[in-house]
Amino acid sequence: MGGKRKTRKAPPKKEGKKLPSTFDCPFCDHVGAVSVKMMRTKNQAKLQCGVCACHFAVNISPLTEPVDVYHDWIDKAAEENADGGKVADPDDDYEPNAQDPVSGDVGDEELDEVLDGAGPLDDYEEEEPPGEEL
User: Fold this and answer.
1) CA angle 23, 26, 31 (to 5 degrees)
2) How far apart are CA 61 and CA 122, in angstroms?
3) Under a CB-based contact definition with an 8 Å cutoff, are residues 96 and 109 in contact?
4) Whether residue 124 has pLDDT greater than 70
5) Handedness of CA 118, 120, 121, 124 (dihedral sign)
6) How many Cα atoms within 13 Å fall on the side-chain side of residue 119?
7) Is 70 a residue whose pLDDT tops 60?
8) Neighbours of 13 (CB within 10 A)
C-alpha cells in the first residue's frame, strides 16, 4: 500500500564571499593593477603592479591567500615609511640667503633687497605709440 519512499534533495550549498584577486597599487594609485602569483610548490608568492612595475616577494604557508600577500606588502611599505609616510624633500635644508651652487642664484632676502632699490625700471614711463591720438 505504501508508495515508493522519496529521498530528500540536499539543500544548495551557500557560496561564501570570495576574496579579491586583484588589488589597488598604493604607489601609482591605479585600481586593480596589482596581481599576486602564488607558487605553492616553492612556498613563495610574488606580487607585481602592471602599471608602475612595483614588485614584492614573500614566503608563504599553505593557508596563505593572495589578500594576505597584499597586506604583507602594505605593512612592509608602511614599516619602511615609519616616519609618517613622508617622502624625502630636497628643500628640507633650504636656507633663504644661501647661494644656489648650480645656478648661482641668490636667496629670497637678497633678491628682495635688489628689487626694493632704485633700478632702471623705476624711471620708466609708458609712452603712447605714434599715430594713435584721441
Assistant:
1) 40
2) 76
3) yes
4) no
5) positive
6) 8
7) yes
8) 6
- Whole-angstrom distance, CA of residue 69 vs CA of residue 75: 10
d(CA 111, CA 103): 14
The pLDDT of 8-26, averaged and rounded, is 86
As a whole number of angstroms, the distance between CA 89 and CA 96 comes to 16
Structure-block grid coordinates of residue 85: 609616510
Q: In whole angstroms, what is the distance from residue 73 CA to residue 45 CA?
A: 11
Instruction: Say which residue the cell 500500500 belongs to.
Output: 1
Give the per-residue pLDDT at 90.
45
Kindly list the distances between the CA atom of residue 34 and the CA atoms of 9, 49, 71, 85, 112, in Å, as whole numbers in the listed order.
Answer: 42, 4, 12, 20, 50
How far apart are alpha carbons 91 and 29 in whole angstroms?
25
pLDDT band of 41, cuts 50, 70, 90: very high
Dist CA 49 CA 24 (whole Å):
9
What's this model's pTM, rounded to 2 decimal places? 0.51
* Predicted local confidence at residue 126, as pLDDT: 59
